[in-house]
Specification:
The chain contains ten helices and nine strands. It starts with a helix and ends with a helix. It has about 260 residues and is of the alpha/beta class.
């Protein structure tokens, strides 16, 4: 009887040691994961909330590859990624972007996590820019209406840039930059090399007289050194901590340049 009690007691001690070891391992793993996440950059992707293509009666929104391409590059790099929009909630996808052949679209349609982020975007007004090392303003025609002269676009862009962070925009995304003024009163883009959707590309889409202004012209008006590229071809421009891409073909490289810049900091 005594021997059985001792045997049972020994087993209990062994089991207890096992669980203590297991809990210790889990604790160490959680600490390591949290430390890894804290030490890795955090990036904010900003989408439009505008869905009407001027007075055409057609729908617009953000261009899907200009979200998915950077997002998956950042995810591969191990970055934390938040998705915000001007109003928060569901961000409208330009329906035409779902029809364009793109390797990332089927992945997006199977990606419950990213789809949830698009359906429940963070309101830009609630964003604390001090939490991010980079911001990317995605394009699509929608941003031409709700990115310019938006107090929270300006607030987030200025705060991140003046905190030694990276400000980036793709295609029509640089519409976010046209009214951004730094603390010294100068436009962020003034004197800087910038790429963005060209007048020629807008004309090819027959939207020259639909969009509220021509992005190429507005950036030049703000003092930017506009860097023209061939229509629909990759064109990415890095000027210090301002990184811009001309069109959807530039989205992946924009993200890669951001990653390079963050690693070098």
């Amino acid at each position: 009887m005594i021997q059985k009690i001792r045997s049972t007691h020994t087993k209990e001690i062994v089991i207890m040691k096992y669980f203590i070891s297991l809990m210790l391992m889990l604790f160490i793993t959680l600490i390591s994961v949290n430390s890894y996440a804290e030490n890795n950059p955090r990036v904010l992707l900003v989408l439009t909330s505008h869905s009407q293509l001027g007075d055409t009666g057609k729908k617009t929104g953000f261009w899907l590859p200009e979200l998915t391409h950077p997002y998956y590059e950042f995810k591969k790099a191990g970055y934390s990624i938040d998705v915000a929009s001007i109003q928060g909630g569901i961000a409208p996808i330009d329906p035409k972007s779902l029809d364009e052949p793109d390797d990332a679209t089927p992945r997006f349609l199977q990606d419950a996590e990213l789809m949830a982020k698009v359906l429940r975007t963070l309101p830009l007004s609630k964003i604390d820019p001090s939490a991010y090392q980079a911001v990317v303003f995605a394009g699509g025609s929608g941003p031409m209406w709700d990115f310019p002269n938006n107090e929270h676009v300006n607030r987030v862009a200025v705060a991140i840039y003046e905190n030694n962070g990276i400000v980036s925009a793709i295609c029509h995304g640089p519409a976010a930059l046209v009214d951004v003024k730094l603390s010294n009163g100068e436009y962020l883009v003034s004197g800087k090399k910038v790429a963005a959707f060209t007048n020629e590309e807008e004309e090819e889409l027959k939207l020259t007289h639909v969009v509220p202004f021509l992005l190429q012209d507005k950036l030049i008006e703000r003092g930017a050194q506009y860097v023209y590229g061939k229509p629909w071809k990759e064109n990415v421009v890095v000027d210090g901590r301002l990184i811009t891409g001309q069109n959807p073909a530039s989205a992946t490289k924009v993200a890669q340049k951001i990653i390079e810049k963050l690693k070098a900091q």
